[in-house]
Amino acid sequence: MIKTGDSLPDITLYAYSNGEGACAIGPNAFSIRERCQQRKLVIFALPGAFTPTCSERHVPGYVAAADAFSAAGIDEILCVSVNDAFVMNAWGSSLQVGDAVKMIGDGNGEFAKALGLSQDLSARGMGHRSQRYAMLVEDGVVRHLAVEAPGKFEVSDAQSILAVIQQR
What we know:
Blueprint: E1 12-17, E2 25-31, H1 32-35, E3 40-46, H2 52-64, H3 66-71, E4 76-81, H4 85-95, E5 102-105, H5 110-115, E6 118-120, E7 128-130, E8 133-138, E9 141-147, H6 158-167
Parallel strand pairs: 3-4, 4-5
Antiparallel strand pairs: 1-2, 1-5, 3-8, 6-7, 8-9
């Protein structure tokens, strides 16, 4: 499993945007390692789009705290899930995330696997997914990692990660 002090793996992730007007843009592939270069990001991941805790608490908490993260020096907040970029975009639209949080697809679960943070939820009909976690990444290096115990939502929420950043 990835840990504090490790560099992010060079994995391709995907974003989708409705763009200006009616023209769809994407899905757009990008290297997560390159996206983090010379920047300070919060990356949080969750088991799936449109799932209860993720939709009702996890994403909305980051949207509500986006200005506080920006004031604390965070350049971007990424929400990553083992869903395709189209689903992530639709989910973000339904939650009205706007530009506060970028909704990122890890459709094949490659990022979750490379981090050592995948989980098998096949018994619940969800297949292989990401564990719930949040990390602070500076210039591609993990500076803080908070991984939730199975079924918990205690350490990866926006306020917990914001408190860590503000104490640095």
